[in-house]
């Protein structure tokens, strides 16, 4: 394997690891992510990957969330005492 490919693989693994750490700050479950991924992307992509800003953006757009995401997001906030 040449050095360029090895460097690219290492970069991808590092990036995936960093993204997993960001995505896990609030211990978001796969179910929560699935319920709100489209809403978060549509309404709040401009703040990614800052998860604090994402939560604030989702809160400020709560009336625009799809019903499943709104229910899941609200329950997640309550579960996390936020």
From TrEMBL:
Q: Where is the signal peptide?
A: 1-22
Ordered alphabetically, the record's keywords are:
Signal
Name of the protein in question: 3',5'-cyclic-nucleotide phosphodiesterase
- Which source organism does the UniProt entry give? Lichenibacterium ramalinae
